[in-house]
């Protein structure tokens, strides 16, 4: 591709494969960012905005954004810390997917119960910076020096195999459902951090003229995330029960209250977190609300 085509465009990086890729594509579709990615090309133009998408390994996105080589990106909070880019990127939105924990895991049947028992042992991980820092603290507390300190070995994937192969006494890797960990006969003994996918921008952007477009895309993505997270709950309730009912559905800012033809009744409409929907409906029934309706949101600006 002719680099001139990219001049002046906002560069937005998303993971080219792996756990976050599909979810990012869905998010872009929801935000009406239209593109066609020619077969395996890592850069493609957005048709309806002055944007180019850059498909990169999730782990490389923090430094591309932090160094200002691309303007914004989507990646995991974990890889921002691993790349030591937290001072160079700003996490503008949590995206509510890619949720996982970075954990120290040991063989299920083995004797190790605490991370202190791993001081001086062999750790295999794809997170050598975070694991290195974590075990350096433990080694310091144990007074270990030189060759006696914990060994941290990097592998690029299939970390769980290291213990079974006799290459490690423990691993440090990501866990979501725990299926991979259990299948490998491992159990967790410590959590280094919790992660989820985040939208990031450079702390010191190189292209100031692009900031309004970054803000617009951020607002669109925030709207898609909020539309997934919230539903609208509408119901009728006796005016005398209104304060009890609206305590159950306070809304994001405040509920909308409309009069009904019967002056003793009002209609209430309020945003409610989708995960709390069933509980909220039960509570509304118990305070005497009637005609409780739930509406999905297609999109939003909040
Ligand atoms: N099991 C999981 N559940 C949810 N999110 C995950 C999970 N595993 C990884 N992630 C998130 O997705 C990011 C990318 O991980 P993934 O395993 O997809 O890497 P990848 O880009 O395919 O690289 P590779 O497979 O080469 O290590 C991680 O940094 C983390 O934020
Ligand atoms: O707790 P679970 O739901 O089983 O998920 C955990 C697994 O997911 C990630 O790997 P992924 O499958 O993305 O592949 P990778 O090993 O190639 O990174 C992670 O490295 C674990 O292996």
Identify the notable features of this structure and list them briefly.
302 residues; single chain; 27% helix; D-Maltodextrin-Binding Protein, domain 2; alpha/beta; nucleotide-binding; Alpha-Beta Plaits; 3 domains; ATP phosphoribosyltransferase activity; six-stranded mixed sheet; binds adenosine-5'-triphosphate; five-stranded mixed sheet; binds 1-O-pyrophosphono-5-O-phosphono-alpha-D-ribofuranose; flat
Q: How would you explain this protein's 3D organization?
A:
The protein has 302 residues and is α/β, with parallel strands linked by helices. The chain folds into 3 domains: 3-96 and 196-206, 3-Layer(aba) Sandwich (D-Maltodextrin-Binding Protein, domain 2); 100-195, Periplasmic binding protein-like II (D-Maltodextrin-Binding Protein, domain 2, 3-Layer(aba) Sandwich), CATH 3.40.190.10; 230-296, 2-Layer Sandwich (Alpha-Beta Plaits), CATH 3.30.70.120. It contains 9 helices and 15 strands. It has helices at 21-30, 61-66, 77-82, 128-142, 161-164, 179-183, 211-229, 242-248, 277-286; strands at 10-15, 43-45, 51-56, 72-76, 89-94, 100-107, 122-125, 151-154, 170-175, 186-195, 197-202, 230-238, 256-259, 265-273, 290-296. A 6-stranded mixed beta sheet has the order 2-3-1-4-11-5. Strands 8-7-9-6-10 form a 5-stranded mixed beta sheet. A hairpin with a 5-residue loop joins β2 and β3 (51-56). The longest helix is centred in the last third of the chain and has 19 residues, at 211-229. The mean pLDDT is 95. The structure holds adenosine-5'-triphosphate and 1-O-pyrophosphono-5-O-phosphono-alpha-D-ribofuranose (PRP). Adenosine-5'-triphosphate binds at residues 15, 17-20, 57-58, 76, 78-79, 98-100, 156-157, 174, 176, 195.
